[in-house]
Amino acid sequence: MDGPIGSIHPHEPNQEAMKPIKNLSIVIGVCERDGCYLLLQRKDKNPMWDKKWEFPGGKIEEGEESHEAICREINEETGLDVQTAEFFHHHIHDWDLEDKILRVHIDCFHCLVGEGDVITEEGKAYQTRWVTREEALEMDSLKANNDILNVFFHEVLQNLG
Q1: 30-40: per-residue pLDDT in tens?
Q2: pTM to 2 decimal places
Q3: Quick one: 85 exposed, middle or buried, by C-beta within 10 A (0-12, 13-18, 19+)?
Q4: Closest by alpha carbon to 65, among 47, 48, 85?
Q5: Domain encompassing residue 65
């Protein structure tokens, strides 16, 4: 059965030891403007991920630093310029796919973004939405997205306040 395994720690044993593990390094941006946060409704061939809400972000390219990647990815996915990007958390999430475990290493950034309309990459998102903290927690989001939101809202914002 395909589905999320959930958040893991690098030293926990692999529950699906028979499947190969593919590691993937990505960045995500919790993009903030005027006290609201940007979420994209993902368009994906895999029904496990299709129509789920997520943060903008994507793969870190070879030779690229995560700070460079988050600025590039947000601009590519939303058309917005990043004014500040502060790293706040490294998250690891396993996805149990049919033929492998996809272990995603996620560098998470709190990003303040400039003005302007969100312009998504063609074919990548159904819609975008600027949401409040409460709305963000109620969205039908990817499991990793919810885990990161909880870290962000319960740890990062408290430290800023």
Answers
A1: 999 999 999 99
A2: 0.84
A3: buried
A4: 85
A5: 3-160
